[in-house]
């Protein structure tokens, strides 16, 4: 009898040991779950190496782990020994449950970022192509955007991303992951917005040829009006007041500056028109293409405006600036800087004297510009340390004036104004 009892006990413990070995996989499960690097997972997702399938695999793994733990019998009879597994189950069950909770935090954030970026791009594209263009510039910009989209297969890319977001929502619904109402509403708006974008792509593609003809005709009409505007600009640049001296030269400088600004605007329009003509030619059969319209008269208008603007700048600058210069000691004159300024004034006047008809403005400026063009280099020579007293004596004999150059003894400072006297 005792032998049979002994054998029964041995068998019970052997069977219990075998049963306990089945729990080794759960120990490994808990260790693996604890070692999960959630930050690394998020980074991999942002880099595109952790995909929808990887999230699904993780969720299914945690679901299976929880189900397996639930399937463990609370009481296991191993011969004459009863094993109570309830405490063990309560200790390991939080491991997959906690991982599922972590996934329930990560996934909605991931999907929120994906759908927000996608919706922004869809809305941007809709804004680019949904509003009917009102100018050739707007039509050209819209077509450039369409070409860019076609080259980059933008619609297909957005379609793939839209389907991906849909798949993520299906995954979250499948595993009962809660999504807040705002994110759900954003997702529900994606469909209509993307459908509208798809429809606009199709409509614009179907009406492309007619739109090209319409806006090509509009450009031709714009060019006709632009040529009229060029004639008006030329007439304004030929205003006789621009070459006659004025009591208030600053007002004439403003007029000349405004002409320069208008020319710059015209120059940009001319470049744009040429760009638009080239664009339409690329979409026009060779036999229907027209010669590109250019505006050679703009170059001569530019030259004329620049000439008069430079003259009025000289007229307005030379008096006030040189009045300030007169107070400067000969020894402190920045010769190179002032000589460059005087050369600029002189060149503007000489060119105006050569190219403009007889007028009262050029003589009013030329005399002063010539004096200062000669005077400043002379001041530089007077600062030459190689000049000896005998040299100064000869200079004083020539000009009939004695230069007081010593600051300790002069009766008045040796300034540019003194030299001019």
Detail the poorly predicted runs.
Answer: none
Structural class: mainly alpha
Rg over CA atoms, rounded to whole Å, is: 44 Å
Quaternary organisation: single chain
Instruction: Tell me the strand order in the biggest sheet.
Output: 1-2
Measured distance between first and last alpha carbons:
145 Å
Series of secondary-structure elements, N-terminal to C-terminal: HHHHEEHHHHHHHHHHHH
Q: What is the count of β-strands?
A: 2
Name the beta content range.
under 5%
Descriptive notes:
It is a single chain. With 421 residues, the chain is mostly helical. 76% of the residues lie in helices and 2% in strands. It is built from 16 helices and two strands. Strands 1-2 form a two-stranded antiparallel sheet. Strand 1 (75-78) and strand 2 (81-84) form a beta hairpin.
């Amino acid at each position: 009898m005792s032998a049979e009892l002994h054998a029964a006990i041995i068998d019970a413990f052997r069977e219990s040991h075998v049963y306990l070995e089945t729990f080794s996989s759960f120990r490994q499960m808990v260790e693996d779950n604890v070692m999960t690097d959630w930050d690394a997972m998020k980074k991999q997702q942002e880099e595109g190496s952790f995909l929808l399938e990887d999230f699904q695999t993780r969720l299914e793994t945690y679901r299976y782990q929880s189900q397996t733990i639930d399937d463990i019998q609370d009481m296991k009879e191993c011969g004459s020994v009863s094993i109570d597994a309830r405490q063990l189950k309560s200790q390991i069950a939080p491991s997959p449950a906690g991982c599922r909770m972590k996934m329930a935090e990560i996934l909605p954030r991931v999907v929120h970022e994906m759908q927000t970026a996608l919706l922004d791009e869809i809305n941007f594209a809709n804004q680019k192509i949904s509003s009917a263009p009102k100018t050739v510039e707007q039509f050209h910009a819209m077509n450039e955007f369409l070409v860019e989209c076609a080259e980059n297969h933008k619609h297909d890319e957005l379609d793939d991303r839209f389907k991906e977001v849909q798949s993520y929502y299906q995954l979250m619904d499948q595993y009962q992951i809660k999504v807040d109402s705002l994110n759900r509403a954003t997702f529900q708006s994606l469909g209509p917005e993307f459908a509208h974008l798809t429809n606009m792509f199709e409509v614009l593609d179907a009406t492309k040829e007619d739109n090209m003809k319409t806006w090509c005709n509009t450009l031709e009409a714009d060019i006709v009006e632009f040529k009229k505007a060029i004639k008006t600009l030329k007439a304004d640049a030929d205003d006789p007041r621009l070459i006659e001296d004025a009591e208030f030269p600053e007002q004439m400088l403003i007029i000349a500056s405004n002409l320069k600004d208008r020319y710059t605007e015209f120059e940009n329009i001319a470049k744009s028109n040429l760009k638009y003509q080239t664009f339409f030619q690329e979409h026009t059969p060779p036999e229907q293409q027209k010669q590109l319209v250019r505006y050679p008269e703009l170059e001569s208008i530019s030259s004329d405006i620049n000439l008069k603007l430079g003259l009025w700048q000289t007229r307005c600058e030379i008096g006030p600036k040189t009045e300030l210069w007169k107070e400067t000691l000969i020894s402190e004159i920045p010769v190179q800087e002032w000589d460059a300024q005087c050369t600029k004034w002189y060149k503007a006047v000489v060119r105006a004297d050569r190219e403009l008809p007889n007028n009262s403005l050029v003589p009013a400026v030329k005399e002063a510009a010539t004096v200062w063009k000669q005077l400043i280099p002379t001041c530089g020579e007077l600062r030459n340390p190689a000049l000896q007293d005998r040299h100064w004596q000869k200079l004083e004999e020539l000009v009939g004036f004695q230069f007081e150059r010593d600051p300790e003894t002069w009766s008045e400072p040796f300034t540019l104004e003194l030299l001019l006297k």
